[in-house]
Design a protein that fits this description.
195 residues; alpha/beta; 6 helices
């Protein structure tokens, strides 16, 4: 990869994300770190109903568009990597607009979805994941703890399957036990994608 978009989580910042550059072996890449207004891409869980997510999600997707354009690097040489809320935004960006990207990495995240569906997860309604993107050639990585307080493991695993169904080469890593932070095996897998 030649370019990397780092997307922070709720309450975080681009400066925080730059702390991952050395562990990722990404110091020499062109870097973009979009900043969410008020340090949050949306005000609630990514599991919230579609009507609540549409506005802030659209703004987040536009911020990723601008970050990618600002790198001035061929799209095939760009990876987007997010953590937590930023991982959800990165994965959703890939599902909707990721065609031609080099890689997408969601550390502790899952797809937001593009419609409401029957069923519940973590107290919210389930979502539809009906995308028409062609992610052939895109490498995807999704990670999640088995007992993540913010990201349902099932949603994270399903997100990897959805991206794979769109043509991406998708990898999913479940970290044992509770937690919500980047883990060494996830960082190692991300580093391999960025190499």
């Amino acid at each position: 990869m030649k370019g990397l978009v780092l997307i922070h989580g709720r309450g975080g910042s681009g400066r925080d994300m730059r702390g991952l550059l050395a562990p990722l072996g990404a110091e020499g890449l062109a870097i973009a770190t979009p900043e969410a207004p008020g340090h949050s891409w949306w005000p609630t869980s990514f599991l919230a109903p579609t009507a609540q997510m549409e506005g802030p999600l659209a703004a987040g997707l536009a911020a990723v568009d601008a970050a990618i354009d600002g790198l001035a690097v061929p799209r095939t040489d760009i990876a987007i990597l997010g953590f937590s809320q930023g991982a959800c935004l990165a994965l959703e960006y890939a599902a909707r607009r990721g065609q031609g990207l080099g890689a997408v990495i969601g550390l502790s995240g899952g797809l937001v979805g593009n419609g409401d569906a029957p069923g519940t997860v973590y107290g919210f309604g389930e979502k539809v994941f009906d995308y028409d993107s062609d992610l052939s050639g895109v490498r995807a990585l999704v990670t999640c703890h088995e007992a993540d307080p913010h990201i349902p493991l099932g949603r994270a695993a399903h997100s990897a399957r959805v991206l794979g169904g769109l043509g991406a080469t998708a990898q999913f890593i479940a970290h044992p036990g509770p937690g919500h932070q980047p883990m060494p095996d996830g960082i190692a897998a991300a580093r391999a994608l960025l190499a």
